[in-house]
Amino acid sequence: MAKDLLIFVDNNTLFMETSIFEDAIKAYAKYCERYGYIFSQPNEQLSMVGRKYVHLENINGKLAKYEIATKKIITNDRKQA
What we know:
The protein has one helix at about 20-35; strands spanning about 5-10, 15, 50, 55-60, 60-65, 70-75. It is an alpha+beta fold. The strands form two sheets. A four-stranded antiparallel sheet has the order 3-4-5-6, with helices on one face. Strand 5 (about 60-65) and strand 6 (about 70-75) form a beta hairpin.
């Protein structure tokens, strides 16, 4: 399960930073909604977070490839969505 990182700034402000894995899931969900695909929940243990990409997978196989630098889902035809 992905965990949030809390960053303390001062007595009145508290920010929450999401993990790269969570960012990838959000981008994948938006991608599915935008193009009319059925969202399938990625599994964190089966997925892989690398230096450039997050490979989202679940028990059914590969779901998406997320490019960390651009914060975009990479499609099979190498276009960014």
